[in-house]
Amino acid sequence: MQRASVLVSLLLLVVVGRVATEADPEPQGQTVSVPPAAPSLTDPLPFDEPTVERFFTAVKSQLRCGYPMFGIPSLVPLKLSYTLKTSFDLLSLKKINVVASNFTVYGLNDFTWDPSRTRFTRTSATVPLSFPNVTAFAHTSLNGANGTSYVQLRNVTVRLDAQYEEKDDLLYVTELGGSILLEDAKVKIASLFPKSAKLSKIWNKAIGKSLPILVELFNGGKLKIEYLSRLLSGAKFYAMNTINNALNTHGLSFDRLVESMAKFADGSPDSLQCDGTASDTLVGWLRA
């Protein structure tokens, strides 16, 4: 791609010079210079798919180690010290008080990416990731009845959107966003109906089937879940601070970040890849 661009530029210089000479044959030795066009900040940038594939392969390994120097623990599995307390009416059949804690999430290192829907510019990036199976376990208490509950999410598609800019030759993330699509889900809430295993099975199945619809409504802003919105807002704030701290610490501009990501993909000695040590430290924004 770059060689083709250089060849086209040289041909343009030859053509422009020839046209200028033919239009005015008297001034001999006149040099015609064409200033290079300034690259657009919003034009899509070409990327090498094998390099990006190697980068994500390295990321999957890195998730096991995390980056303790930036406060990022091991994410395989992801352990969250977060306690959820809420209550709801189950179709006026039952008032349920829920307490959930000790969350453990599996499957975050098993994903693929879609090159056809990936887009990079000098100010934004969109990357879709697909997870075949993400399962979250938690200790739950429903109206005082304790147990272990889980949610299994199948064929999850996450679209990550990021916006960034350069100031004083340093790159800063200014916005993080995205969306989630869910194909299917399986739910088992322990002690939902302690006296009726059959009723518990029916309602667990119904809740699992409704999750893809609820996720779609939440993405579109048609469903408001206050504690989930606070949770995502906290995660976004923590992620942006962590990323910008890393960018600033290593003095990365956009071009230097691209170079650093290529080194990471190739496992260069200075790539800050996984050193084989994993930390069990809980995620900072949840611990706080």
How does this model look, in words?
Keywords: Signal. Residues 1-21 form the signal peptide. Pfam families: JHBP (PF06585). This is Lipid-binding serum glycoprotein N-terminal domain-containing protein. It comes from Anopheles coluzzii (African malaria mosquito). The chain is of the alpha+beta class. Helices cover 36% and strands 30% of the residues. It is built from 6 helices and 8 strands. It has helices at residues 2-23, 49-65, 197-219, 226-249, 254-266, 284-287, and strands at 78-80, 84-89, 95-106, 112-113, 119-120, 124-142, 145-167, 170-188. Strands 1, 2, 3, 4, 5, 6, 7 and 8 form an 8-stranded antiparallel β-sheet that branches. A hairpin with a 3-residue loop joins strand 5 and strand 6 (124-142). The longest helix is centred in the last third of the chain and has 24 residues, at 226-249. The chain starts with a helix and ends with a helix. The model is unreliable at 1-24 and 276-288 (pLDDT under 50).
Summarize the structure.
It comes from Anopheles coluzzii. The chain has 288 residues and is an alpha+beta fold. It is built from 6 helices and 8 strands; from the N terminus they run ααββββββββαααα.
